[in-house]
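Quick check before the chapter quiz. The format below is the same one you will see on the exam, so make sure you can read both the input and the output lines.
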Amino acid sequence: MAKDKDDSPLSSNVPRELEVGRGEVRQKFRQDIPKGQGDLLTSKDLFGEIIDELGDDGRAVSREGAASPSPMRADTVSMKAEADGEKVYSIVDLAYSTLLHDSKLNRQVETGGAAPETEPAKADSAYGQYLLLDRIATGGMAEVFRAKRRGVEGFEKTVAVKRILPHLSDNKEFVEMFINEAKMVAGLSHPNIVQIFDLGKIENTYYIAMEYIEGMDLRAILARLRGKETILNVDLSALIATRVASALEYAHRHRDASGKPLQIVHRDVSPPNILISREGEVKLVDFGIAKAAIKAHSTDSGSLRGKLLYMSPEQAWGRSLDKRSDIFSLGVVLFEILAGRSLFMSTSEMSILERVREAHFLTPSSFNPAIPIELEAVVAKSLKKEPDDRYQDASEMLRDLDAYLRRRPAVGAAELAGSVERLFAPGAGEESKWKTNPGTVA
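Here is the expected output.
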């Protein structure tokens, strides 16, 4: 039976389309944002070094680049009108504009493509107790290798080694953040989370050894689907979201050895960090690494561009984050799988930022009429602009996704693996291109 569009879970006043140009965006920065607290991300965390470069006195800057005589906090996002009506903007706005301006990366995000492949490392390269076999991926933060861990009596285990790039080893603040976050999540053990085995340092370079996943990240899968002008089965889409929600629910409630809640927030639930193995397992990678990664990117033009598409509104504003931010990001990912298109993609970087901050979107069934209304309701609730209006816990979202799947023909890892395998089946003159788990490297 066709569903009644009047029963849409989204408010009827949600605009059917939102097109925001640069000029409009410039007129919409409108409120001061309080600093974050404790270890949570603030605008200063996101843009610390670039803020210092743009203007370490924290003054607002006009469109002509002249500093405003009125002092303004550097970690706010606000706008004032001078006597002549000229608008001025904070340093953070300029930092966003600088970070999001990279034409090469823009094309990559718009096409859903992955980062360009790099030349493999020299085979059989010894690295401590590991034997580096080949380089999987590289980026501005790290390079990832497929490696073997060697032990006694010929014992070997294949792992992924993420080696931090040497220039970051001299960044004391980054290293401390990276180590603390990695240590915090090293105890996570869940079937849908890539496990960290080892954190070490060799020749002044830090590395993480983690579970090796042979398969594809969700970004590559979505790009392939777009290239074939098709969409993943809605039940398999719900299955992926269910597995990620299960991983988040476990991590969000995880406690340390003394029973103290760790209050882990992933901060980067996005397609590159969701892996699908050859066996149809769904794995979330890089828990706790995102905060250090963002700090590492603070002077890398364009590096936040892809991540911006999956931020929560509060994250895009530089506000304090909690587990509900991860729930919003998962909702964005689920929308993209179901609809076959990015939720907040627009014609310019700053209009994407505005869309994320305002959380305006169309219903996913506007693009894929096959989406059942129950699944659309899950998307709608996870994407509420205000955290208090969303699912308050990943277990709530998991419960609704499970309830939906129980009413549908059974799907599991085998069906997901088969679907992805067929998607990447080689055509004429083409080899199968199963990849491995890079996670956050760019």
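If your answer matched, good. The longest strand covers residues 130-138.
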